[in-house]
Structure to design on (474 residues):
């Protein structure tokens, strides 16, 4: 333990320039609780998690980490850990209950206080506008598959930008629109739990359209706030070596093309002004003719970005499906160590996916807006957690980030997922991603070894270790 916690830190700290942003991330529904407080109305996640069988153990976000009430002490905890930045999300149903109409001043005031408290504690506030908690009224009106939702989102984005934009250091429209559309409307694993491929594709388009329209409303209200979107990207590799030349080689390559197409290029291409990739348009033709993509939409989606947020957890390794009748592609494991999510630990995947964006898309500053791991934590009698695996995951992925910078990729920040254990969507409270342990019975927070290690790294970075012996050194 001791070695892990102290030794490589000063070397690793040298990989990041003095201006590099280090922080932690959370999302509103996963931590806030207080679901009916100060005028908040239900989101799709309140309704979904209340439905039997949707979430592990019937867990809901009703209490979560009680962060809505404990915000000042949670910010103090981040300060004590030396965090430079905090990425949180704003609950649309707090700010604009029902998803339309007047602003709920009491709900907005919570985020106003959060931003001010962060700044008072020297922590840069980064806000995500939409981390999956669509107001239920908008779902009842059709949800993201309906075009009007994009316009409602742009209006809400303008409200937030107007209120907070002067103090935010980063404003992210959407978190992982792939999840919102394909898990929410395609396979039903996430709220609102619909299973309709055509609806999922329409949702993906209206999310991206909402992002593009929000660029206008945000820039009108807060011209100087750095504006971006966060995508979950997956490097996608064939389950055979590059040198493999068997008769099914082309089928492997096609499996990669399809999965990369729908997971990555479907979002990257339109955001970077290329419109939807034509091969994927062909792939999905039997599901949808994409009649909801109207003239001019792709220009709106291509609004200039100040940064791209990338969330990375693992790599996809694919093969042509062994059994006909499935979706055509199998996802395989390579036998690498996995996290409690069953996701293979693959720091090189972070290098590969960010490098690919750098090599193939227009230059834009990149922030790693999420990266982290769930493990089964063992809590000692004193509440501490010696999470050596999470610590190693964090260290090895930061090492990959450092190598990207050394290789000339414009990576400017890293936000660990997550500040603390929280409501992990369909997995409920069973999966713990926190650097800080949460005892849900008492709401006691205890930094794990990974949190201490990260704090030490940030301390070394701040004190200029490795920057020629001081931040102003050679
Ligand atoms: C991401 C989500 C985040 C969290 C992590 C583990 O897909 O953005 O809220 O659930 O996965």
């Amino acid at each position: 333990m001791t070695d892990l916690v102290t030794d490589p830190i000063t070397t690793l700290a040298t990989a990041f320039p003095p201006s590099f942003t280090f922080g932690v991330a959370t999302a509103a529904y996963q931590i806030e609780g207080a679901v009916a407080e100060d005028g908040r109305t239900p989101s799709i996640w309140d309704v979904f998690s209340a439905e039997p069988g949707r979430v592990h153990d019937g867990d809901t976000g009703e209490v979560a980490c009680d962060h809505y009430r404990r915000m000042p002490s949670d910010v103090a905890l981040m300060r004590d850990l030396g965090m430079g930045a905090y990425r949180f999300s704003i609950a649309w149903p707090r700010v604009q209950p029902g998803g339309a109409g007047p602003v709920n001043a009491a709900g907005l005031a919570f985020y106003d206080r959060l931003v001010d408290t962060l700044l008072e504690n020297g922590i840069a506030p980064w806000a995500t506008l939409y981390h999956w908690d669509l107001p239920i009224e908008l779902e009842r009106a059709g949800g993201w598959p309906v075009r009007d939702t994009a316009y409602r989102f742009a209006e809400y984005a303008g409200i937030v930008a107007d209120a907070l934009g002067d103090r935010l250091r980063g404003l992210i429209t959407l978190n992982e629109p792939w999840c919102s559309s394909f898990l929410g409307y395609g396979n039903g694993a996430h709220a609102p739990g619909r299973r309709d491929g055509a609806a999922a594709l329409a949702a993906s388009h209206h999310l991206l359209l909402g992002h593009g329209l929000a660029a206008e409303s945000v820039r009108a209200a807060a011209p100087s706030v750095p504006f971006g979107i966060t995508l979950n990207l997956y490097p996608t590799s064939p389950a055979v070596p590059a040198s493999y030349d068997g008769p099914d080689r082309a089928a492997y390559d096609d499996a990669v093309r399809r999965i990369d197409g729908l997971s990555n290029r479907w979002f990257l291409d339109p955001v970077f002004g290329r419109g939807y990739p034509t091969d994927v348009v062909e792939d999905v033709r039997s599901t949808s003719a994409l009649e909801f993509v109207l003239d001019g939409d792709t220009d709106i989606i291509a609004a200039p970005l100040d940064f791209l947020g990338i969330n990375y957890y693992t790599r996809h390794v694919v093969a042509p499906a062994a059994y006909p009748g499935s979706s055509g592609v199998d996802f395989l494991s390579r036998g690498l160590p996995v996290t409690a999510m069953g996701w293979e630990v693959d720091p090189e995947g972070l290098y590969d996916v960010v490098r690919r964006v750098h090599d193939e898309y227009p230059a834009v500053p990149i922030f790693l807006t999420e990266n982290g791991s769930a493990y089964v934590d063992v809590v000692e009698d004193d509440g501490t957690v010696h999470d050596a695996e999470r610590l190693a995951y964090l260290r090895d992925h930061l090492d990959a980030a450092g190598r990207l910078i050394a290789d000339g990729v414009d990576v400017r920040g890293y936000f660990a997922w997550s500040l603390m254990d929280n409501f992990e969507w369909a997995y409920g409270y069973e999966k713990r991603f926190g650097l800080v342990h949460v005892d849900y019975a008492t709401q006691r927070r205890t930094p794990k070894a990974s949190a201490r290690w990260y704090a030490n790294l940030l301390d070394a970075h701040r004190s200029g270790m490795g920057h020629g012996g001081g931040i102003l050194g050679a």
Remarks:
- The radius of gyration is 21 Å.
- The chain has one domain: 8-465.
- Residues 27, 30, 175-176, 179, 232, 311, 370, 417, 424-425, 433 surround beta-D-fucopyranose (CB under 6 Å).
- DSSP finds 17 helices and 13 strands in the chain.
